[in-house]
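Why predict the complex rather than its parts? Because the way molecules touch one another can change local conformation, and only a joint prediction can capture that. The input here totals 321 residues.
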Amino acid sequence: MSDYINQIRQGDCLKLFKQIPDESVDVVFADPPFNLKKKYRTHHDDLEFQEYLDWCEEWILECLRVIKPTGSIFLHNIPRWLTYYASLLNKNADFRHWISWEAPTAPMGKTLQPTHYGILFYAKNAKQNKFNEIRYPHKRCRKCNYLLKDYGGKKHLLHPFGPLVTDVWTDIHRLRHNKYRDKHPCQLPIHLLERIVLMSTDENDVVLDPFSGTGTTAIASKKLGRKFVGFELDEEYVEASLNKLSQEKPNSRIGEYWVSFHLDKVVTLREKDWESIEEFYSIPSNIKEIDFKRIKLNEKGKECRCPSKVVETESVASLPF
Ligand SMILES: C[S@@+](CC[C@H](N)C(=O)[O-])C[C@H]1O[C@@H](n2cnc3c(N)ncnc32)[C@H](O)[C@@H]1O
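Output of the joint prediction:
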């Protein structure tokens, strides 16, 4: 197992899974090909209906085998396939959430326009499952800066940072601009994975992604001080991942607290850390002012905020092929 820690292995995940012992990883996040005829470099994304589902069953059972009793599995896909995944998972794990990640797609005609991906969240064992409540910043009107949600007479109860994250995620956008993307047809945003990692793991826990693509899960895990294991069929995607990983450090923090940044702002933090992180922010003394005032990192916060990127590089794990 130690040979696989903090590595992205090139190959078929079903073969690579055989090297991973039972109950040895904390979290699996899987974002498989959706069988929608996407143009991957190596993988043919066009299986027969039952062939695709049989293949999914094989790797989902492997995911469940390697997760610790305290661990979680997150499966990202379109709702159509998730309904089949759920019926398999219901027999082998404990349902926690169907997370709806809002992500508008092109209109398809004669149907409701698909506007979310699903992320199925199951615990290996609900009673032992590791889970952290997390918060995201209040949503505001772009023009007037007021909170979008009307809290009416309850403004004195506002949380300075923002609400607890629910099972509907509307604040994380798909990667649209080429300058933020690799040459990969369905790369996920890093801060989507950081939210999942913060919610389900602690420092040094192990996160496995059997369809690593260009390394989003591995990068999120590394930035947050977690360990990662990645499998990916395509050599070029592996190489792109290793290059990016070499430029990241475990440094997505304020003080000693792990948080997720996007465009220089904290976009997810853990509820249990807020009491300690609070001193790094300027917060209005009258909490009702949060309605129109955004909290900002104060001088101490700016000093204690680790950079999300460093210039120097560290040695890259050698290519396994
Ligand atoms: C939906 S993409 C994952 C993208 C990834 N989440 C990211 O953000 O970069 C699915 C990936 O699975 C890879 N893949 C397909 N079949 C595979 C297999 N049998 N074993 C490992 N990887 C595979 C594809 O090459 C593709 O990069």
